[in-house]
C-alpha cells in the first residue's frame, strides 16, 4: 500500500493517517514520554486487516525516539539504554534458565550497515561458562551466545541458513537480531530504535532483502532490534521540498499555483514523483549522515547495554559500561 520506503512501523502508521485521516483498523497505538528527551510509541497489530493495511506481520512494534542521540552525552545514552532494557524485559519469554542467541546482521565493512556486528562485539556472552560449569540457570546471569554471520556477498551462504544451522545445534530459547533499517524521514535517522516481535529481513535497510528471520522460519521466538541509518535520495529530496515550501509560504500570504500544488500533494505522491524523476538517471541512491562512524559506535553501545541489562538480572549499567570499555 505504501510507496514511501520505510522499515519503521510507526512511519507506516503515519502514512496511513495522512492518507485516510483516521487510525488503522486492527492496530492499537500507545504513546508515552520518558523524561523530556525520550518518546516511546507502541504499535500493536492485532488482526489480519491491520497487518494487510500496515504491510507488516501481526505483533508488537516498539519505537524509542530520542532526537538528541546524534550528539548524545553519556547521561542520555544511559537513559536510552535503561528504557530499552525495560522494553526488552517485557518481551522476553517467561522461562527459567533462558538461553538467548544474539545475531548481529549486516556488513562490518560498510559503516551504515555495521550496526549489528558492532553491537555483538559489546555483548556479554556467557553460554560457554554455563557449559563449562554444567549449569542450566543462574540468578544473576542467563546463557547468551552471539554471532555476526556476515552477508551473502562475502560468505556465499544465506544468512538464514547459517543461523538455522547454529540454532539446530545450540537450541536457544530466543533469538535477538540486530540490523540497520531505512527511514522515510531524515530526522529519524540514527535517533530511533525499533524493537519488534515479528522478526526481520536481513539487508532491509539497504534494499537487499533476504529470507525472513522469524519464529516461523527459525522455530524459536525472534525479537528484532533495528535503527534507521539510511534514507534514499527520493526521501531526502521530499523532505527538502517540504521544508522549502513551508519556508516560502511563511514569507508570503499567497504562494504561487505551483507551490500550492506541491503543498497539497500527499507525501507518498511527492515521493513517487521524485523517485520517477531520479531513477532514469540512477540518482535514487542510499544516503547517510557524515557522522555515521561515531553514531554507529554510540548507538551500538546503547543497544548492547540495553540487551546486557535485560538478559543478565544481576548486572547494571555501571557493570556493562565497564565490561565493554
From TrEMBL:
Homotetramer. Pfam families: Peptidase_A25. The lineage of its organism: Bacteria, Bacillati, Bacillota, Clostridia, Peptostreptococcales. The gene is gpr. It catalyses: Endopeptidase action with P4 Glu or Asp, P1 preferably Glu > Asp, P1' hydrophobic and P2' Ala. Initiates the rapid degradation of small, acid-soluble proteins during spore germination. This is Germination protease. GO terms for biological process: proteolysis; spore germination. The keyword NADP does not apply. Autoproteolytically processed. The inactive tetrameric zymogen termed p46 autoprocesses to a smaller form termed p41, which is active only during spore germination. Residues 1-7 form a propeptide.
